[in-house]
Amino acid sequence: MSSGRFCPRCGDSVPERKEPLPGASGGRAEALCDACYLDDFDLVDAPDRVEVPVCATCGAVKRGKSWRDVGARDYTDVAVDATREALGVHVDARAVEWGVDPEQIDENTVRMHCLFSGVVRETPVEQEMMVPVMISRGTCNRCGRIAGGYHNAVVQVRADDRTPTGEETSRAVELAHDYVGDREETGDRNAFVTEVEENPDGVDVKISTAQMGQGVATRITRELGGTVEHHPTLVTEDEDGNEVYRVTYAVRLPAFTPDDVIDPQDGGGPVLVRGVDDRVTGVRLAGGERWESDREEGLSPDARKLGTRSDAVETTLVAVADDHVVQILDPETYETVSVSRPDGLDTDAQTVPVLRSRAGLHVLPET
């Protein structure tokens, strides 16, 4: 029995529906019979091609207006995601699923062979299409900043009354990279070390933000000791008229380092430095008593450096005279001399490390 409604294209009757079709778009398309409607139906709309901007330096992918680190060895997965985002599914379809078979043509081209399925007007439908994805190489804003020398902080590593050792400068740079690397792993694309500049007085590390510069300076002094002072300098204004400052963090390493031998000039004899935290601490070479600098002096005690453990040479232990004196062979004159016995000396040792200074010969305790 006719419903009184006829398809405007083929003239067949169109049955009345008690409820609107799921996702029905209405209008003339709603008046068509199922066969005519499905003749022109496109389940999915896709662009002629999809373009994916990729940073040629770091491999980040641009999504919208932002760059994202994807950590991909190739860009097949990236091409799949970009294709999914570029597709438009017809509003009248439901239960839509898709499968994809990527075909890598070359380094910058991936063909996406796609098969879509869904239900339209209670009728299963399928659609096949091929979407080419083009990888376009460029430079992300982060790599552009690094290449342009952008930085808002400089960590200057220096030392009081001396030049930092190679080990200290290397460790300071390593700590800076570790700190910034930790921030990078959290997804912070504003975290980077712009430049490391060695100079006769120490090393300068240029870092992207002032906050990270402060974090790096703190980590260096926490491990290597010393103090930090910061000095902001106005460099420009941003687009909103806000003042932009570049901050220099001046790290001053202590005058003395662990394994230095110093003379506090207090009559108690030389000291082997053990630590440099808020004060210099160590042990007397003669007797092994603990020594520390005055609180007021902190890391800058009035002491004279005699040498370091690395300056010591091995020489023969001739005899142990008593609890306070040992006899050793002078490594230069080969004469037997008596010197103070350090605490914890291995009396069965064949040789001992000795340091020569203006104050004489000093046997160093074990590490």
Explained architecture:
The protein is elongated. The termini are far apart. Helix 5 packs across helix 6. Helix content is 17%, strand content 41%. The strands form 6 sheets. It has a 5-stranded mixed sheet. It has a 5-stranded antiparallel sheet with strand order 17-16-15-14-18, with no helix packed on it. The protein is of the alpha+beta class.
Shape: elongated
Order of helix and strand elements from N to C terminus: HHEEEEHEEEEHEHEEHEEEEEEEEEEEE
How many E-type strands?
23
Across the major sheet, the strand order is 10-11-9-13-12
> β content, as a range?
35-45%
Overall residue-averaged pLDDT value: 85
- What assembly state would you assign to the polypeptide chains in this entry? single chain
Compact summary:
This protein starts with 27 loop residues before the first helix and ends with a strand. It is built from 6 helices and 23 strands.
Comma- or semicolon-separated keywords:
about 375 residues, 5-stranded antiparallel beta sheet
Would you spell out the secondary-structure blueprint of this structure?
Elements: H1 28-31, H2 34-39, E1 44-45, E2 50-55, E3 61-63, E4 66-68, H3 76-86, E5 88-89, E6 94-106, E7 109-120, E8 123-138, H4 141-147, E9 153-159, H5 166-185, E10 193-199, E11 202-207, H6 210-224, E12 227-237, E13 243-253, E14 260-263, E15 271-276, E16 280-284, E17 290-292, E18 304-308, E19 313-320, E20 325-329, E21 336-340, E22 351-357, E23 360-363
Helix pairs in contact: 5-6
